[in-house]
Amino acid sequence: MSGNYDHIKRANDDYAASFDRGGKPIPPAKQAAVLTCMDARIMPAEALGFELGDVHVIRNAGGRASDDAIRSLVISHKLLGTKEFYVIHHTDCGMGMFDQATMETLLESSLNTATPGADGWTDPGGDDGSQEGRFIKWLTFSDAAEAVTEDVTRIRNHKLVPGRIPVYGFIYDVDTGKLAEIEAASAAGRAR
Ligand SMILES: [Zn+2]
Fold this sequence. Notes:
GO terms for molecular function: carbonate dehydratase activity; zinc ion binding. InterPro entries: Carbonic_anhydrase (IPR001765), Carbonic_anhydrase_sf (IPR036874). Pfam families: Pro_CA (PF00484). The chain is an alpha/beta fold. The protein folds into two domains: 26-94 and 140-192, Beta-carbonic Anhydrase, Chain A; 99-137, no CATH class. Helices cover 31% and strands 18% of the residues. Strand 4 and strand 5 form a beta hairpin. It is globular, with a radius of gyration of 19 Å. The structure holds zinc ion. Zinc ion is lined by residues 37, 39, 62, 90, 93-95.
């Protein structure tokens, strides 16, 4: 086996051997849901002071309010009782490093990992490229504050999200660990 396979099996054996936090209920104890980016430099529970069982964390590339992120948020409130939503984007997000057209072109060239450079992305090429990338909305953005405001606004205005739920917008700094509230986003997400 390669990669992290052995590591994961061994690490989990240790984890499970001393695990003593089972038996918790499904609804998050702190009644909150966090939507954030999949970026490996963010450990949401750790950064926000939550423990196992406290909050829902929904993650995708960019922490965007995609239809699927909203699906999870709606389930989070409607069936599991959360009462506040936090949308957390971050500094140095990879989603600001490409746009829709770039992604489509790279995927048409090949499925191999492309590399970023001063002149944009370079694809190594291959014989497995596909035009399927054209059918996916990659939800890229160039300004994190604008994007988080857009996402908070979309959630706020969604017909399946009740107005009583406050939706807050933040940007997390991956170099300092600090969270900065984006006033425009939180204002847009205010409960009503
Ligand atoms: Zn990101």
